[in-house]
Amino acid sequence: MKPKAGELSPERQGRAVSADPAAPLKPTEPLFVPAKITSPSIDERRLTHVSRRELLKLTPLLIMGAFAIPTVQESLLKKGLGFSDWASARLFRRGHLAPTFADSQVTPFEKFPINGYDVEDPGVIFEQWSLTVSGLVQRPGDYRLPQIQSLPRMRQNTRHVCVEGWDVIGRFGGARLSDFLAMIGADASARFIAVSCADDYYETLDMATALHPQTLLCYEMYDQPLTREHGAPLRLNIPTKVGYKQAKYLTDLKVTNVVDKVGYWEDQGYSSFYGL
Questions:
Q1: Under CATH, to which class is 103-268 assigned?
Q2: 20 vs 15: CA distance, rounded Å
Q3: What sign results for the dihedral spanned by CA atoms 139, 150, 225, 107?
Q4: CA–CA distance, 207 with 213 (Å, rounded to integer)
Q5: Residue 272: its pLDDT value, please?
Q6: Lowest CB count within 10 Å: 47, 137, 198, 233, which one?
């Protein structure tokens, strides 16, 4: 019997053919045809490549979508900022100097912006002022300005960069913070220097930044005593850091391994390292 059009013959179906057309067909061992191993066609490879490429394009959108979810937004931001600070700290080179500039490049004093987080003058009484030192030091106590001025004075023309988007080149003078830490017998293996200010501002520095040769306890600007508006009688000048790390109106300094508060702006979500 011939198969109908479109129908496989019994042999093709893997069944035995009986000499008696009326006899039922018996199954035999199935016929196995070796599989043909083929490599992806050009179109398939292209499709795979395009699919991966499109997935990579979608990745930023997926990440942005995750940021839109309130329950995970804050956690992602903190983790991202923490990783950024960790990486920046690892890349920080203690002996690498920030750029310095010629006197002719310095911004005129009257054009140097006055910037504060609360008040321009917290009303420090200079005659009663002292810097109170505590923590992991051999010689804690209150240090008057003449004691700090007795250390070698350093003057530098460096750039002051504000997180608000402006920067100027200024001339700053004072004692190296590293020299002052040596004077008070600070434990150089401690992790942080924490400072408090007369205007209730507060800030912390990692020890590597504190020991950097350009980090100053600044009591001069433009070879003149620091003015009240710029942080008198004593402020930080740190050309390797952004402006909000450079606290003004210093009143307390603590050497420590643990801080309860990182910094005024850092505790509101800003970078705790923010190196330049």
A1: alpha beta
A2: 14
A3: negative
A4: 12
A5: 85
A6: 47
pLDDT of residue 24: 52
Alpha carbon of residue 85 to chain centroid: 3
Task: Kindly state the helix (H) or strand (E) to which residue 133 belongs, with its residue range.
Answer: strand 131-135
* CA dist 234 → 146, 195, 248 (Å): 11, 11, 7
- Both tokens of 238, joined, read 């740190």
pLDDT at 235: 98
Is 255:190 a contact under the CB 8 Å cutoff? yes
Across the 276 residues of the chain, what is the mean pLDDT of every consecutive 10-residue run? 49 46 50 50 50 50 52 47 49 77 98 84 95 98 98 98 95 98 98 97 96 98 97 97 96 97 93 77
Q: What is the DSSP string of 146-192?
A: HHHHTSPEEEEEEEEE-TTS-EEEEEEEEEEHHHHHHHTTB-TTSSE
What pLDDT shows up at residue 95? Answer: 75
In which element (H, E) is residue 131 found?
strand 131-135
- 3-state percent helix, strand, coil for the chain, nearest multiple of 5: 30, 25, 45
Query: What is the amino acid identity at position 95?
Result: G
Edge to edge, what strands does the sheet with 141-143 contain? 141-143, 131-135, 250-256, 192-197, 202-206
Amino acid symbol at 64:
M
3-class secondary-structure state, position 254:
strand
- Give the per-residue pLDDT at 102: 98
Residue ranges of domains in the chain: 42-91, 103-268
- Is 128 exposed, middle or buried (CB count within 10 Å of its CB: 0-12, 13-18, 19+)? exposed
Peptide bond into 70 cis (omega under 30): no
Q: What is the pLDDT of residue 266?
A: 94
Token pair of 13 as six digits = 């179906």
Phi, psi of 148 (to 5 degrees): -70, -40
Q: Can you give the C-alpha Rg of the chain in angstroms?
A: 36
